[in-house]
Amino acid sequence: MRFVRVMIPNTETPVYGVLEGTQVALFRGLPWGEPEFVGVAVELDELKVLAPTIPSKIICVGKNYAEHAAEMNSSVPDEPVIFLKPNTTVIADLDPIVLPAQSQEVHYEAELAVVIGAVAKDVPVERAGEVIFGYTCANDVTARDLQAKDKQWTRAKSFDTFCPLGPWIETELDPSTLAISCEVNDEVKQSSNTKEMIRGVHEMVSWISQVMTLIPGDVILTGTPAGVGPIVAGDSVSVTIQGIGTLTNPVIAR
What's the CATH architecture for 58-253? Predict the structure, then answer.
């Protein structure tokens, strides 16, 4: 199923719905809770599509594709490398990525995002699927020059608008062999497959749950393949993942 978070015209509270074709069947509550369908279906193009979740935390996996690690002049780590992005980085499909004045080199990073659907702590790998609600597209936007300057990743990854998510959550998906790509102004910049991940989705969910408790709505970004590069004001950047769809965001200067 595809769950979409939307804003109905002339209302102030976001709601969720199930996307079937071009129509959204609206419901009360959260999709990972006990949704109550209200018997109303609305055309998707009549609604403002929002980011599919505003998580308590976004946990990102670094260097999880060998070719990307190589292009960054780095080796594959012995253990997973993780970092956090604040939820204030989250924007929706078609919302603008705002380039900060502090950086002169901002990069796109196409990633498969995992949406957590249950409280998870010390989850075995073989049970990781039980706490995954679904999957969406993500762009781990990064101020690459600040990443190099700071010698750590927090500032470079944390500017407002630096985590586009969407356009919806797909629940019926095998994450192990999905084509993933990124286009800038319709030119393909990244093209890979999730089978190239060093550590798979279930392994990463289990490993992270041994570090911190995951709660429903949390998001895990699973790493980016090779081909990262700069975006500038006026660009349009799109992340496409097989079985989910395409997340597109214009780029503007602050």
Answer: Alpha-Beta Complex (3.90)
